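Posting this for the archive.
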Amino acid sequence: MQVLDRAIDLLMTFTPVEPALGLTELVRRTRLSKPTTFRLVQNLLRRGLLRQNEDGRYELGAEVLVLAASCRVDLRELARPILRRVRDSLNETTVLSVRVGDERIHIEAVESTHPVRRSAFAGERMPLYAGAGSKMLLASMSDDEIDAYLAREDLERYSPTTLVDPRRIRQEVAAIRSRGYSEGRSERDTGGGGVSFPVRDQLGAVVAEMHVSIPLLRYTADLRARCIEEVGEAAAELSATLGYRPDAIARKARRR
């Protein structure tokens, strides 16, 4: 079992942002001895799970593609138990949404059991500038994409707190990017609040957002702090399941 664990650890050091690694780097990442790492590499090469490229570094081999072809990734299916766990902990409606064109669409939701609760259902659509989840997806777009969206979108004021000034929306986007999460209070209708975190794929791109939707009467400072912690951890867990490795992406960025 130890040999198997070590071989898996070695294979998992390869990521889409760092697809090729030398033996020295593999030793450092796995924290194994050089002889042990070399033996593992040779066995993985023999089984086609690794290959050696022209510059001598190692990459995942063709047999990995055979395994990957048997893997079916369903974002809703992966997210469902995580959403349910957050709901059970906070007892507030927990939602997963994606961006489709100029709209946010719920693809999965687990509702609170409180008699007074915020409701959500799969297929519900909303604009990208109003609400915690929508603003999270907006912030994931490039500045050019945001400028084009704001130029063509009719910015309707749903409530007194809805941001409809493009300048203020851009300021909010900058704040979201800086702190890593989005927050909204009664922006689409009165009486609701919540926080949203990004869900990222193996390349670090935001593919969805996870948020909790809470009646303002329960949205206290203590509950808000719990939401930030628990939704943040849950979104990070789902991102990791999709192959997101922030350390690898950070290393690549530092080398640029």
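The mean pLDDT is 91. The two ends are 38 Å apart (CA to CA).
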